[in-house]
Amino acid sequence: MNKKRGRTSLSQEKNQGENQEELSSSSDISDTEQASAKRSHVRKEPNQNWFKIYPWLKKEVEEDKIILFCSLCRERNGKTVFAVGTKKYRLESIKNHVKTAEHNIHATQIILDCRNYK
Ligand SMILES: [Zn+2]
Questions:
Q1: Which of 28, 65, 70, 103 has the greatest CB tally within 10 Å of its CB?
Q2: Residue 76 lies in a domain
Q3: Spans of biased composition, class Polar residues (predicted)?
């Protein structure tokens, strides 16, 4: 009995059906940033206009790399990528950050704080 597997298998590597999903490295924090897996243009440095549009957007330099972060969220020890700081300069990410619940809570808290001062 020598049943070899020598048959010309029709379905030889027909389709490697296993679509390995990208394991998003580096962040176990689920920010909306990874929602769009599209490769959009990552800039080498942040656009200066972004700082005008988003007053809470700040930058710091670490090892010759510019890190963008949200001053509101960082001040309040947020957990989003912008609270921590990111080296990806994408307007899309910033826009996504605006939509995060965390940022909104912080933003409204600031507004309330301001009102209390008056
Ligand atoms: Zn924020």
A1: 70
A2: yes
A3: 8-37
Instruction: Write out pLDDT tens, residues 43-73.
Output: 788 999 999 999 999 999 988 899 999 999 9
73 neighbors 84 (Cβ within 8 angstroms): no
Ion ligand 1: residue ranges with CB closer than 5 A: 70, 72-73, 103
What is the tally of structural domains in the chain?
Answer: 1
Residue 49, domain member (yes or no): yes
- Return the closest-CA partner of residue 84 out of 48, 50, 60, 111: 60
Can you tell me the distance from the alpha carbon of 58 to that of 73, in angstroms, rounded to the nearest whole number? Answer: 11
What are the tokens at 105?
Answer: 């809570």
Confirm whether 29 is domain-assigned.
Answer: no
Task: Give per-residue pLDDT as tens, 90-108.
Answer: 999 999 999 999 999 988 8
**Residue 49, domain extent:** 41-117
CA torsion sign, 49 to 55 to 57 to 59? Answer: positive
51: which 2 tokens?
């700082």
